[in-house]
Amino acid sequence: MNRPHARNSLGKVFVDELFSALEQLRFDEKVRVVVFKSKVKGVFCAGADLKEREKMDDAEVGHFVKRLRNLMDEIAALPVPTIAAIDGYALGGGLELALACDLRVAASSAKMGLIETTRGLLPGAGGTQRLPRCVGVGLAKELIFTGRQIDGQEAFSMGLVNHTVPQNEEGDAAYQRALTLAKEILPRAPIAVKMGKLAINRGIEVDIASGMAIEGMCYAQNIPTRDRQEGMAAFREKRPPQFIGK
């Protein structure tokens, strides 16, 4: 993300650009992991573009917030693993974007929060649904009701991020840690990883019996793959597997 004059705030044009990027990523079979990062030092995403929002009437606000919600859903629905590298401020819609990712890495100095109640708003791009799944209902309510900002270390302690790292001089410590995490995922069987993501995302929405059925369907899709056969052969031959995503 690179909208420096507006601290990567989510304006109409920027949101359109993100939709376009997601469309390309969704159908690119070479993509194994997606890392969301900022090229603007000290900020991940400052949230909604309130200067632009201020000029909208009520109907326009409702339409645009729905579009933001759809954007976060599109990020969550990417078939490959996604990682948010939070090296600076992730506020409001910026944190909701990070919450739409599968994994989150934050610099210990990063600041994040669903601050909408401090502006007379409430989270409208999935934050009220995704935050409780990360930190639990009680903590989610506290953070949303107060609009409190927390740092990367606090976020890690409550389970909001997977990893926290000290910031470096370049200001990209979270991105570097996210790359390391992505490189751990890259050698794994792509279809198995995708099916694992799908099973978790769909299974968490239903009761455990239905979730087990979803897992079974995902597993069944993986059985006939060449990668599964390669994994078994590599195990038998005591060598690293070479997965091709088929």
TrEMBL record:
It is found in: Mitochondrion. GO terms for molecular function: enoyl-CoA hydratase activity; RNA binding. Keywords: Acetylation, Lyase, Mitochondrion, Transit peptide. Coiled coil: none annotated. It holds the Pfam family ECH_1. GO terms for cellular component: mitochondrion. SUPFAM superfamilies: ClpP/crotonase. GO terms for biological process: fatty acid beta-oxidation. InterPro entries: ClpP/crotonase-like_dom_sf (IPR029045), Enoyl-CoA_hyd/isom_CS (IPR018376), Enoyl-CoA_hydra/iso (IPR001753), Enoyl-CoA_hydra_C (IPR014748). The keyword Acetylation applies. Belongs to the enoyl-CoA hydratase/isomerase family. This is Enoyl-CoA hydratase domain containing 2. The lineage of its organism: Eukaryota, Metazoa, Chordata, Craniata, Vertebrata.
